[in-house]
Amino acid sequence: MSTIMVLNGPNLNLLGQREPQTYGHETLADVEAMCQEEAAKHGLKVDFRQSNHEGALVDAIHEAGQLIKAGKMLGVVFNPGAYTHTSIALHDAIKGAEVPVVEVHISNVHAREAFRHHSFISPCAVGIVIGMGVQGYVLGMQGLIKKLS
């Protein structure tokens, strides 16, 4: 059975309590349950992770790359949080490990502060889901599955 990694960056552990007017009331545990349910519909498993540390996210991308090459993983649905706008290291990890990534953002980053309008992840993503709330994770999974299966 193949796996999809759902990877979450900094502060997403605060989902449901941090700025609910922007990010909603669902928790990261709620998102994980949604992702597990969607994966099961497709006969897949989910490896769900969150880290506030850039290096841990880079390591997870590297690990995903190895699993993809071994035929054990389909790809990654990735909400890089604020690292979207700052991390060349994550961009390089995705490209270097040759990982198909769907970039996900809960809020519409283009309707927010100007510094959120640029993404270092988008140029190496196979798809992007922005502003659809936590449902964006499910949409990202569906897109990844359709694109790569």
TrEMBL record:
HAMAP family: AroQ. This is 3-dehydroquinate dehydratase. The record marks R18 as: Transition state stabilizer. Substrate binds at N79, H85, D92, I106, S107, R116. Catalyzes a trans-dehydration via an enolate intermediate. GO terms for molecular function: 3-dehydroquinate dehydratase activity. Its EC number is 4.2.1.10. Homododecamer. Belongs to the type-II 3-dehydroquinase family. Pfam families: DHquinase_II. Keywords: Amino-acid biosynthesis, Aromatic amino acid biosynthesis, Lyase, Membrane, Transmembrane, Transmembrane helix. The chain crosses the membrane at residues 120-140. InterPro entries: DHquinase_II, DHquinase_II_CS, DHquinase_II_sf. It catalyses: 3-dehydroquinate = 3-dehydroshikimate + H2O. Pathway: Metabolic intermediate biosynthesis; chorismate biosynthesis; chorismate from D-erythrose 4-phosphate and phosphoenolpyruvate: step 3/7. The active site is at Y23, H105.
